[in-house]
Amino acid sequence: MTLLGHKEAWAQWRAAMAGARMHHAWILGGKKGLGKATFALTAARELVAEPGVPQPPGEHPDVIVLTNLPASKEDEKKREDGKPFALKRNISIDQIRQMQLRLNTRPTLGSRRVIIIDPADDLEKSACNALLKSLEEPPQGTFFLLVTHRPGRLLPTIRSRCRMLPFRPLDNREMEEVLEREAPSGSPAARTAAIAAAAGSPGAALDFVELDLGPLHTLMGQIAATGDADFKLRGKLADAIGTRPSRERQAAVLDLARTVLAERMATTPMTQVPALVETNADLAQLAAHFPIYNFDPGLLVMEIGTLLAHLAPVRTAG
């Protein structure tokens, strides 16, 4: 995704680069889909570049990215073939240790090296502890960029050694610009719905358009508003997700359900707040289990529909 917005983040970053002493570790924090990883890669290349030293156009030897690896050898083969593949749930301690071995050598092209961890939310506990040692005693010229969607879940000892760089949601004008450029085939109605559902996250908006989530969003909104006593809307929801949806589409549907829940917050009377809190907890638990278990897509979306139906006002006989 082409970079857009985040003027405040760029201003802080470039002011730090121009200063006498650049902080060695940064947390890039904000909701998922804001472009933090793209920012990290661009910022890292700016940091390692030196006058008179040609920089490679593709992967940079002095920009090391640690992220979730393919889940299996079969998934590694799929990645090599350019096919969709599943990822491991966590970034392991072995990945951190391999990175630390590289820190024993000098940077390849210049005097600086950047380690990007994306997302730092997925670090194993043992990996966090291992990373902490590098943050406490970083080698000369080594910088760390920790991309995180939930900064508060990082260890306090890690947060205390990093400078926070916050990322705000994009406004509607910026979101429209992203969709017009990145998803020009989407209809104006789909773009409008995507902007409303994504709440300032361009990544979520692009998923909305590219994964055709509009019909699902409409049905979820209807279920949350009116309930689904005869299960007809949930049946339509199961049809809308498709018979063999990808894991990416299923994950996006889970995210969309939580967006619908957030939309209901603005109009929910106090009497319905307990149901909203309970539904939020149940959706969070379902989202946490999704990477571990292979849910049947139809049953998954029916469960989502049932949880959203709990948000509908209770109707009494008149």
From TrEMBL:
Protein name, entry field: AAA family ATPase
Pfam families hit by this protein: DNA_pol3_delta2
One term under GO cellular component: DNA polymerase III complex
A biological-process GO annotation: DNA-templated DNA replication
Species lineage: Bacteria, Pseudomonadati, Pseudomonadota, Alphaproteobacteria, Sphingomonadales
